[in-house]
Amino acid sequence: AQSVTQLDSQVPVFEEAPVELRCNYSSSVSVYLFWYVQYPNQGLQLLLKYLSGSTLVKGINGFEAEFNKSQTSFHLRKPSVHISDTAEYFCAVSDFGNQFYFGTGTSLTVIP
Amino acid sequence: DVKVTQSSRYLVKRTGEKVFLECVQDMDHENMFWYRQDPGLGLRLIYFSYDVKMKEKGDIPEGYSVSREKKERFSLILESASTNQTSMYLCATRQGRKTGELFFGEGSRLTVL
Fold first, then answer.
1. Phi, psi of A20, deg, nearest 5
2. What pLDDT shows up at residue A28?
3. How far is Cα A39 from Cα A35, in angstroms, rounded to an integer?
4. In sequence order, what are the beta bridge partners of B105?
5. Which of A20, A44, B36, B75 has a CA that sits 20 to 30 A from residue A103's CA?
6. CA B105 to each of CA B2, B15, B17, B36: distance values in angstroms, whole numbers, following the listed order
7. Closest CA to A29 of A92, A91, A72
8. Domain ranges (residues) in chain B
9. Which chain B residue's Cα is nearest to A88?
10. What is the domain partition of chain A in residue ranges?
């Protein structure tokens, strides 16, 4: 089974500043990688995904992530955050089986 | 767009009551999942199903059962609710094995008193 580590449980950042949310996973075998966002009292929405191909993946709302196979990482970045980006962010890994493995989440708070 | 609908957004039940949480999807996806979400623990898989009448235990199946009589519907059942089952429950679907992302419902927040 995979394990997914999101090192930062809370990340405060000022509006219009850049942000990076870190995600590492345990296995170097081929995987699918995902970032989801959750707004208060809602389900999870897909931000972006890596299935194959280019290691730099662009998603919705200006987010992007880079797959690094040697470091087994999939960090999420945004060059300039908005108040509306305040939410919980989850990294997830699927190792071609039928299960997903989720990190414990990172709470991003954008400060005006 | 895939639509995953969970029957109840908020429920309050008493200890010992039987609880049904229903999930319906409209995209003919084969796979359906039930997760539980608790602060600091992320999402934990309770049960999943990859076909009608098929079910597989996830990481925390104790105290739960599931039913999938039709492809579009996946129900989570708490036979006798306990206070430690107070949580957010999330249903998700996936088109098939090894095929991309999960699609989530809005969640059902259950409080057991």
1. -130, 125
2. 64
3. 14
4. none
5. B75
6. 10, 26, 24, 12
7. A72
8. 4-112
9. B42
10. 4-111
Residue B64 has pLDDT above 80, yes or no: yes
The pLDDT of residue A62 is 95
Residue with tokens 């939410």, as numbered in its chain: A87
Q: Which two tokens stand for residue B13?
A: 């039940």
Q: Which residues of B are less than 8 Å from A103 in CB distance? A: 42
DSSP codes joined into one string, B39-84: TTTEEEEEEEESSTT--EE-S--TT-EEEEEETTEEEEEESS--GG
**Which architecture does CATH list for A4-111?**
Sandwich (2.60)
Q: Which residues of A touch B42 (CB under 8 A)?
A: 90, 102-105
Query: How many angstroms separate the CA atoms of A75 and A23, rounded?
Result: 5
CB contact under 8 A, B50 and A9: no
In this structure, whether the domain defined by B4-112 belongs to CATH 3.90.1150.10 is answered with: no
The answer to whether residue B24 neighbours chain A at the CB level (below 8 Å) is no
Average of per-residue pLDDT values in chain B: 93
pLDDT at B96: 73
pLDDT of A57 higher than 90: yes
Confidence at residue A34, expressed as pLDDT on a 0 to 100 scale: 95
